[in-house]
């Protein structure tokens, strides 16, 4: 289990500890006013502040890596970080609630200019806050069955799922993302800091079932699948795998599965 499970999991995976979604924990780490100001500034922070940081990093890459990268990572862990969670764990989380709120995806607004609703507000009812914020006010409410069906559809489409804190350990969002996600870009492309943790699992390919079609390789955003021409098979690069599980949906031979990260020595301590 990761450091967040150790600190906030009470013996479970931290995102399965349902107290982390409650009003009580919200009040331990947040005030309504601060939360509102944070969200009100979110679009600006994703579009302007990140661009500025990236410009700085390009100018002074070594200094950035040495000084700014650890600060960004530390700040993210304290305030707003995500962890990749596979579909089955998302479905388990959802069973604890009676409904969720589907919200506009701010990242895609920044990266593609499109208004799409891929984000879910989960846990305590934050709609009185969202309705006062122009970037978040276009929400709708889904029953848990509707949410599960929608997220299964997104999984097939190739969206990775993740949970996000708003002042750790309070969890308020469940995201469904692709390469247009700003967190993905900040971490994987711009390398500005670590804002998204690997999941509690890693993928495994049963080579006896694999025909080397490479569909999983095209699906993986994290460069975690490699192809071996000599035996016409794919395999998983464990240290690149985020355990999102979305590669499974494209494998017609059911060759892909997830294993507990902690049971795979090479990946067990790699987050
Ligand atoms: S984390 Fe994903 S779903 Fe959430 S706002 Fe960003 S791209 Fe959208
Ligand atoms: S999609 Fe399945 S069969 Fe195709 S390369 Fe990947 S693991 Fe092998
Ligand atoms: S190989 Fe790992 S990171 Fe890539 S899609 Fe599969 S589970 Fe996700």
Q: What does this molecule look like?
A:
The protein is α+β, with helices and mostly antiparallel strands and 271 residues long. The protein folds into two domains: 3-197, no CATH class; 201-263, Alpha-Beta Plaits (2-Layer Sandwich), CATH 3.30.70. The chain is 39% helix and 18% strand. It contains eleven helices and eleven strands. The chain has helices at residues 3-8, 23-29, 32-40, 42-59, 61-79, 87-94, 106-112, 127-130, 144-157, 182-189, 215-219; strands at residues 82-84, 99-103, 119-121, 140-143, 160-165, 171-177, 196-197, 201-205, 225-228, 233-236, 256-260. The strands form three sheets. A seven-stranded mixed β-sheet has the order 4-2-3-6-5-1-7. Helix 4 (42-59) crosses helix 7 and helix 6 (87-94) runs antiparallel to helix 9. The longest helix is centred in the N-terminal third of the chain and has 19 residues, at 61-79. The radius of gyration is 19 Å and the shape is globular. Bound molecules: iron/sulfur cluster (3 copies).
Question: In summary, what is this structure?
Answer:
The protein has eleven helices and eleven strands. It has 271 residues and is of the alpha+beta class. A hairpin with a 5-residue loop joins strand 5 (160-165) and strand 6.
């Amino acid at each position: 289990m990761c450091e967040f499970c150790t600190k906030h999991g009470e013996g479970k995976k931290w995102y399965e500890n349902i107290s982390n979604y409650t009003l009580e924990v919200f009040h331990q780490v947040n005030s309504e006013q601060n939360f509102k100001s944070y969200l009100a500034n979110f679009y600006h922070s994703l579009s302007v502040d990140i661009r500025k940081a990236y410009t700085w990093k390009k100018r002074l890459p070594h200094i950035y890596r040495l000084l700014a990268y650890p600060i960004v990572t530390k700040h993210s862990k304290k305030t707003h970080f995500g962890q990749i969670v596979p579909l089955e764990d998302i479905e388990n989380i959802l069973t604890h609630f009676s409904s969720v709120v589907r919200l506009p995806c701010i990242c895609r607004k920044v990266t593609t200019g499109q208004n799409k609703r891929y984000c879910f507000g989960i846990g305590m009812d934050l709609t009185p806050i969202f309705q006062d914020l122009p970037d978040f006010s276009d929400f709708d409410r889904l029953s848990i069955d509707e949410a599960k069906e929608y997220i299964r559809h997104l999984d097939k489409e190739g969206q990775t799922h993740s949970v996000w804190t708003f002042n750790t350990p309070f969890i308020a969002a469940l995201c469904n993302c692709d390469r247009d996600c700003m967190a993905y870009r900040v971490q994987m492309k711009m390398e500005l800091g670590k804002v998204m943790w690997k999941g509690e699992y890693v993928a495994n390919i049963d080579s006896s079932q694999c025909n080397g079609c490479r569909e999983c390789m095209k699906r993986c955003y994290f460069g975690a699948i490699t192809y071996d021409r000599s035996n016409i098979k794919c395999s998983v690069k464990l240290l690149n795998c985020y355990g999102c599980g979305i590669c499974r949906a494209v494998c017609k031979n059911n060759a892909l599965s997830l294993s507990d990260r902690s049971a795979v020595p090479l990946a067990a301590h790699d987050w």
